[in-house]
Write a structure and sequence with these properties.
Largest sheet: 7 strands, mixed
CATH topology of the largest domain: Collagenase (Catalytic Domain)
Number of helices: 4
Helix content: under 10%
Bound molecules: zinc ion
Number of strands: 64
Number of domains: 8
Shape: elongated
Radius of gyration: 63 Å
CATH class of the largest domain: Alpha Beta
Length: about 850
């Protein structure tokens, strides 16, 4: 950068505006280009445009760097009890797997050159005194992934906060990242890294930028969650994942999932985390991988009296390695050096089991159990055991065959003629198996050639557990080389021979067609497992015999009687047979039942249709009345069970009905039909007209109900002179009055059901009826109508129409009036509506 005070002036020589340093100091004496280059000239003078461009570039660069830094640390991914940045319902189309911290993804390049990533820990404010163990456990989780070169190391405690020079883990909010919170804060911790975008490397097809510093900060205001080590370890593991370049995983099971689990996982990572770290830090990237002991057991076969040397092999981790013995003992005469070399001269035969520990300079350690076998010297005779076929269980005194295989790893051939044989071991020279030596009669086995030895042996006569192990032998040199692998053979007491098998249980079975059936044939004796089969005959269709369980099972699909011979074979090939008869019967036919419960009330004179219903048996059914009788007018259809017809009489009728199916199964059920009469009614009576003094007769008509009826006047009165016959309903007599009369007439039947209707009788006095006697039309002028009993208030109707005719001297005069030629009619109507008869006249 550049400091000092500058002035913009005009170049005295050219007149151009330039920048001059006017207040130089000894710390900053030059203006220089952004990238100092060898041979660049220090100057106090610069062109104004170049100076302005320089300033602009530097401000921009500063801003970018600041932005990048803050986004990296403080805009990244807090581990939340319920993170804001992760919502399943957000609808984003995410691959369900790990993600990277940012794009382009950052990673540490140290593992690529075998270097660990080291974090310093500031224990100030740590939630517990064993915080270093918690952090180391989290680091170990990420550092021991198979196929992964990453190793992240606890560099120890130091009073670090965020530093550009070291990676840090803090608990005291030293960078002031977390605001004070009265309740337990949602953000548990933050983890992230800063990187150099100018250093890139392509790993697994992805371009990564180089991580420069990492930082993890636990929120002290969330310390209510830091009560146990397991929780602290999970948080540390998760945040370390961010500091290794990982973002949140979409797998809820992943430790890098955005929500803390607190499910007892402590410092562990799960498959998606492993996939992520393997992707970012593959072992093929050049790193050493996790610390691993490569040597396998047995380390080798040492020979008594001969020098022995083996270098323990390891890979991964950091070097140099340090080796130590943590349990067991090396063979007498051998020692383990810190550099991993086991050497010395063994003093005695035998197998030694021990566990070694490998520790690297980062204090990562692994252990492994190993063994060394020390054998006797063999004077050029040596062998390696290859394989064998040996039974593990035998009966006492049982004869058996075995095969043993070795390879000649010595320098001399194995020749039966010169005393080469196989001898028993464990214990040495035992004759448990029928002898202690098996001579070799085959061709000599040269150095490097295999030997396959097949021989017959005999189990001990007493039950027990015996070792079975053999070694090669050379006359003059004794047993040599690697023994066959020991087999512990159990020689059992066979006990009395099993009884022959037999089939117990039923001899005849009954099944129903269409109904699931199962019967397990019981077996006794013999030696399970058994096998079952049908020896002769055939099972009913739909039934099978389970060959393993002896179960007859299935749903028969045909009736009949079946005879089969079933056979059982036990595991010793002993057989037993049994005759079985299986009767498959038809399913029972349900009884016929008439389900109609009752017949509803009927009305005489009203048609009826009532269906009777039957179920069961074998349709069709035939119906009949078996007792009593149906009401007159009704019948029962034999083929359909339908009662129909029109009952003609009221009453209660009891009867029984039978339904008989196609196979003569019959059901009988009693029924009762109540036939009621139709309701009583009165025929409508029109208004009656009559003349005072003239006879009047009118017959009232009633219907329904239960005759005979009784008639009475129950409201108003009949005109004087008229009477109602209570037995016949006839109104008759000679009225002696005129006027309009209204009366209520009630008819009542034998059941006291009644009906009332109102009648109206209009009686006219003949003396009030006018009459027209003459009509005279004077063409085009007037019409004169004369008559008798014309009231002074009467009206004249001409051709049915009311007129404005006036009355003069008892005659109507209507004028002017024009009448068409032809017939016309006049009527005179007195007050009260009493009209004359029509009078017809003609106009010429
Ligand atoms: Zn997180």
């Amino acid at each position: 950068m550049f400091l000092g005070k500058f002035a913009v002036v005009a170049d005295p020589a050219t007149g151009e505006r330039i920048v001059l340093r006017v207040a130089p100091d000894k710390n900053t004496s030059v203006i220089q280009t952004e990238t100092p280059m060898a041979g660049s000239v220090a100057t106090s003078r610069m062109e104004l445009s170049a100076y302005c461009a320089l300033i602009t570039r530097r401000i921009k660069a500063n801003r970018e760097r600041s932005k990048s830094f803050h986004q990296t640390y403080y805009g990244s991914l807090p581990m939340l009890a319920e993170p804001a940045e992760y919502h399943r319902s957000s609808g984003r189309d995410l691959e369900p797997q790990y993600s990277f911290l940012t794009s382009p993804p950052p990673r540490w390049f140290e593992p690529d050159v075998g270097q660990p990533v080291v974090f310093m820990i500031n224990p100030d404010g740590a939630p517990n005194p064993q915080i270093m163990d918690d952090i180391s456990a989290a680091m170990n989780a990420w550092s021991t992934v198979p196929g992964c070169s990453l190793r992240i190391v606890n560099g120890g405690s130091a009073a670090v906060c965020y530093s550009k020079d070291s990676n840090s883990i803090v608990f005291n909010n030293c960078e002031g990242q977390f605001p004070p919170s009265p309740s337990c804060a949602r953000i548990l911790a933050l983890g992230g890294m800063n990187w150099d975008p100018n250093q890139t490397k392509v790993i697994n097809g992805t371009t990564f930028v180089r991580a420069v510093t990492g930082h993890i900060s636990f929120n002290p205001y969330a310390s209510c969650d830091f009560g146990d080590h397991c929780i602290v370890r999970e948080i540390a593991t998760h945040e370390l994942g961010h500091a290794l370049g990982l973002g949140h995983s979409q797998f809820a099971d992943a430790t890098m999932f955005g929500v803390a689990h607190f499910d007892g996982r402590c410092a562990s990572i799960h498959q998606d985390d492993i996939n992520a770290i393997d992707f970012v830090y593959p072992a093929t990237g050049g790193g050493p991988g996790p610390l691993t002991i490569l040597s396998t057991s047995p380390l080798g076969i040492a020979t008594v009296g001969s020098a022995f040397s083996r270098q323990l092999l390891a890979s991964g981790g950091a070097t140099p390695y340090g080796w130590s013995l943590v349990s067991g003992l090396l063979p007498d005469g051998l020692n383990l050096l810190p550099n991993g070399l086991i050497s010395g001269t063994p003093l005695a035969t035998g197998s030694s089991d021990f566990t070694v520990k490998l520790t690297d300079p980062q204090n990562v350690s692994v252990q492994k159990a190993l063994s060394i076998l020390v054998i006797a010297p063999a004077s050029g005779f040596d062998s390696q055991f290859v394989s064998q076929e040996v039974p593990k269980a035998l009966n006492p005194s049982q004869t058996f065959f075995i095969t043993l295989r070795w390879v000649n790893t010595g320098s001399k051939p194995w020749n039966g003629a010169s005393g080469f044989a196989v001898v028993s071991q464990n214990p040495t020279n035992n004759a448990n198996w029928g002898g202690n030596t098996v001579p070799w009669f085959g061709s000599p086995v040269a150095s490097g050639e295999p030997l396959e030895l097949l021989f017959q042996a005999f189990a001990p006569s007493r039950a027990g557990i015996y070792d079975f192990q053999w070694q090669l032998y050379q006359q003059g040199a004794g047993p040599f080389g690697e023994m066959s692998a020991n087999v512990r053979i159990t020689v059992g007491d066979p006990g009395p021979p099993p009884s022959p098998p037999s089939i117990a249980g039923l001899s005849s079975l009954e099944a129903v067609k269409g109904t699931f059936f199962t019967y397990i044939l019981p077996a006794t004796g013999g030696t399970p497992p058994y096998a079952w089969q049908v020896a002769t005959g055939a099972l009913p269709g739909g039934l099978i015999l389970n060959p393993n369980t002896g179960a007859l099972i299935g749903t028969p699909n045909a009736t009949g009687s079946y005879a089969v011979m079933v056979q059982l074979t036990d595991s010793k090939s002993q057989t037993a047979q049994k005759s079985l008869s299986i009767a498959v019967t038809a399913p029972p036919v349900p009884a016929v039942e008439i389900t109609t419960s009752s017949v509803p009330q009927a009305t005489s004179g009203v048609s009826l249709n009532q269906q009777l219903i039957a179920i069961g048996g074998k349709p069709p059914y035939t119906w009949a009345v078996t007792a009593g009788g149906l009401p007159a007018g009704l019948g029962l259809a034999a083929a359909t069970g339908m009662i129909s017809g029109t009952p003609s009489a009221a009453g209660v009728f009891n009867f029984s009905v039978s339904a008989t199916d196609a196979e003569s199964r019959t059901a009988i059920k009693p029924f009762s039909i109540t036939v009621v009469p139709p309701p009583i009614s009165l025929d409508l009576v029109p208004p009656l007209d009559g003349l005072k003094g003239s006879a009047l007769n009118y017959q009232l008509i009633a219907r329904g109900g239960t005759p005979p009826y009784t008639w009475s006047v129950t409201g108003g009165t009949l005109p004087t002179g008229l009477a109602l016959n209570s037995a016949t309903g006839l109104i008759s007599g000679v009225p002696t009055v005129a006027g309009l009369f209204t009366a209520a007439i009630t008819v009542r039947d034998q059941a006291s059901v009644s009906m009332t209707s109102t009648i109206q009788i209009k009686l006219i006095d003949p003396a009030t009826i006018p009459a027209v006697t003459r009509a005279k039309y004077k063409g085009g002028k007037k019409l004169i109508v004369a008559g008798e009993r014309i009231n002074s208030a009467a009206q004249l109707l001409l051709d049915g129409n009311q007129t404005s005719a006036t009355i003069s001297d008892g005659s109507f005069i209507l004028k002017p009036i024009m009448l068409a030629a032809g017939n016309h009619q006049v009527r005179v109507v007195n007050p009260g509506g009493v009209s004359s008869a029509p009078f017809m006249f003609s106009v010429e």
